[in-house]
Design brief:
about 500 residues, alpha/beta, 10-stranded mixed beta sheet, 6-stranded parallel beta sheet, 15 helices, globular, binds NADP nicotinamide-adenine-dinucleotide phosphate
Length: about 500
Amino acid sequence: MTTAEKDHPQTGPFLGVIFGASGDLAKRKLMPAIFNLSRDGLLDSSFAILGVSRKEMTDEAFRKKIIADMEELAPGELTESMKEKLIPHFFYMSGDVTQAETYERLKARMSEINQQCGTGGNAFFYLATAPTLFSPVIHALGNEGLIAETSDYWRRVVIEKPFGHDLGSAQQLNADIQRELGEDQIYRIDHYLGKETVQNIAVLRFANGMFQPFWSNLYIDHVQVTVAETLGVEGRGGYYEHAGALRDMIPNHILQLLSLIAMEMPLSFGADDMRNEQVKVLRAIRPLEGEDVTRNVIRGQYGPGTIDEKKLAAYRDEENVNPESLTETYVAMRLAIDNQRWAGVPFYLRTGKRLAERVTEIVVEFKKPPFTPFRETTVESLEPNQLIIRIQPDEGISLRFVTKVPGTLLELDEVDMEFRYADYFGRAPATGYDRLLYDCIRGEATLFRRADMVEAGWRAIAGIQAEWEVNPESLTDYSSGSWGPAEADALLSRDGRQWRVYV
Ligand SMILES: NC(=O)c1ccc[n+]([C@@H]2O[C@H](COP(=O)([O-])OP(=O)(O)OC[C@H]3O[C@@H](n4cnc5c(N)ncnc54)[C@H](OP(=O)(O)O)[C@@H]3O)[C@@H](O)[C@H]2O)c1
């Protein structure tokens, strides 16, 4: 028995239907996640994956494609014995999901595979397709009776972001899918929540007595969340033109991180208890409107620049991008949370493309001590204590504090106490998709977003979206390879603070 088998039970029998099986998400994330779960001994032997997309392919051709993709993505990892064991579990059906006849054939194919592989009728449907297809596909699955559960088997649907493009469309999407499915059958995936370090935020806060007394406006000065990418739009200009940094990152990934940092202690780590607390704090975010948006939100777009000595083009010169585009590739903001714990503590969030470094980090900065006896030293210039939670890359946690420099003089300096996942646990933390697929198959919804969380995320940025609609020119430039617009630095410096500096 492997360690994984001892620590985690296997999934139980299931059939996973992946719509969009010939696409990028299936290739880069979903299939590798299935392989990882199998390698770790977490999949029941009675499982099957049925890929669906319009491309004509036989089962055989689909299996060959999966092997070729795996060999391209993780050369040498797929052993002959893994291939032999796994590949017969994969099936394919070509079909257009906008056509009713596809679902009749799907029903027949599912029942055939169920007989052949003993999947027990349990099935999830993964919608790795364009968001415009979410509602029609779920509706068609409902019409064909494919998502009705019985006491013998479960049926679930997994949806990828984006869940709408604003509050209204998210409410509409939720209403549409809730007409066909119970909330407990809907798994809205946010792969950030599958990351070990993200889950560890709750563990750090609630399993360690030492942090609890400090976790409030009494001791915390402010919180920073940085999600910085060095990549540009990488050929996805067409998609990004309609998304932009605000929509793409804030209401989902970044507000999820914020909710874990700021939530009250849940009664348990169960799905309802956790999500009830997360949604409460999201609802407490003070909405920004009109003038407040101009004062508290910075919107930028990358111009030309250099990263690693490579010359890079401006966003407006990217493929499929309007040369006069007003889409933002960077956003920074200052949010307030209106509750007793966080009153007076600003939360500064920033995310952008083509920045100087790829890093996702949360910095919790503590207040300086109100009095210190070290008057003759340089204590005034010392930085305050910081707890830094690094989500990627090089996942870990570090604590910055002041110490005495060895020597006869009383000299003080800041040091970092570091914990790195890789040092302690010997292997890189799992990517989000492994964990999330596993949880979905086991019916564990804690790490998936509930309808009210999605809507609370959109509600928090609704005023910003409205203001930018009337005032789309409020965009500043930054050079590729920099840390974003100077205005974002000013957002903090005017409060006497600064973004964490990366060297
Ligand atoms: N790629 C990522 O890393 C990523 C990350 C986060 C979220 N997402 C989300 O995941 C979803 C899929 O993204 P993707 O990047 O995989 O897109 P993609 O590469 O364009 O793949 C789309 C898939 O949908 C299939 N498809 C399109 N129309 C269809 C129809 N009428 N009937 C049946 N199949 C159809 C396509 O296959 P055929 O053309 O053969 O039909 C293809 O397999 C999107 O909602 C995206 O926003 C993707």
